[in-house]
Amino acid sequence: MENKSANKQIMDIKELSEYLGIGKSKIYSLIKLKKIPASKIGRQYRFSKDIIDNWLKERIVTKKDDLQLELPANTGNKK
């Protein structure tokens, strides 16, 4: 079965929920916390697929070793 939301450029809450595989209440929580890019048109939210895809790419989680190099223990200047 093909996911119709994957082909749409503008999605509503229900379609975004299906696209991301998360509940509508979680999406509303993310909107309230300003954690997800959303446009409000009247009383309804709309989401651009391109913007959501970029938002997802920016939040890729990698394993701890890949995040940053460890800094040396003494980084302060000694006189």
Automatic annotation (TrEMBL):
Which parts of the chain span the membrane according to its record?
none
Q: What's one Pfam family the UniProt record gives for this protein?
A: HTH_17
Q: Tell me the domain of life.
A: Bacteria
MF-aspect GO terms: DNA binding
Residue ranges constituting the Helix-turn-helix domain according to the UniProt record: 11-59
Q: Which NCBIfam families match?
A: excise
What is the protein's name according to its record? Helix-turn-helix domain-containing protein
Lineage summary: Bacteria, Pseudomonadati, Elusimicrobiota, Endomicrobiia, Endomicrobiales
